[in-house]
Design brief:
- With 109 residues, this protein is mainly alpha-helical.
- The protein has 2 domains: 42 residues, no CATH class; 55 residues.
- The protein is 65% helix and 0% strand.
- Helix 1 packs across helix 2 and helix 3 packs antiparallel against helix 4.
- The longest helix is centred in the middle third of the chain and has 26 residues.
- It is elongated, with a radius of gyration of 22 Å.
């Protein structure tokens, strides 16, 4: 037994190819492995698939990080007594609105 595991017991069961395909499909919808999905379902977990896919979430996070970097640079400039051009703030505001629209559209699906 691996020392990193908290669980001491293992449950094994057999399924047909069709059943496994269905379990795999459902687990993918919830962005988890088949064993983890089966364990949660067996424990009676109420589950809803995420409204945004994993790649979409990573893309939104990447875009937000880029905007955060821009905001940090503008904050540093302002704290050093430099001017912060209004057009740069408007660009950031437009980018945030665009990301919000993409995110809102994704969770409406």
């Amino acid at each position: 037994m691996s020392e990193n595991r908290n669980e001491r017991r293992q449950v094994k069961f057999r399924v047909s190819d069709d059943e496994f395909e269905r379990l795999e499909q459902m687990a993918t919808e919830f962005q988890m492995s088949v064993p983890k999905f089966c364990k949660m379902k067996a424990q009676g977990a109420r589950m809803r698939p995420p409204k945004i896919d994993r790649e979409g979430a990573f893309e939104v996070a990447r875009q937000l990080r880029a905007i955060g970097n821009n905001v940090n640079q503008l904050s540093k400039r302002a704290n050093e007594g430099g001017a912060v051009p209004g057009e740069e703030l408007q660009v950031i505001e437009r980018e945030l609105k665009m990301i919000w629209q993409q995110f809102s559209a994704a969770i409406q699906k």
